[in-house]
Amino acid sequence: MKVKSRISSQSCPKKYWLKTKEIEVSKEIPQELIKEVVDLYPDLKTGRAKDIKAKKKMIELYNVIYGANYSTTTNCGSCISTCFDGIKKIYKEYSRIN
Known about the structure:
Oligomer: single chain
Order of helices and strands: HHHH
Shape: globular
Number of helices: 4
Distance between the termini: 36 Å
Radius of gyration: 14 Å
Structural class: mainly alpha
């Protein structure tokens, strides 16, 4: 899985994809999902999920919000880190509002 993390800083020579380092937060997230992220984040704030249930919920929320397809049973560090970063970004963006 090291390839996934190395590819993000490169772009395709045929211009099929551009390099990226930022996760963009969609402005059209339903309020129910934002509330779930805000409620879930205390179980994730240390960078480690409190339990398997919290990890599974984090991955499910990330998949719904960003349209990804990560397995909820994954133990891949890169995949879990991507999900955590996306949820953290949403929390920081919307926790002030609620």
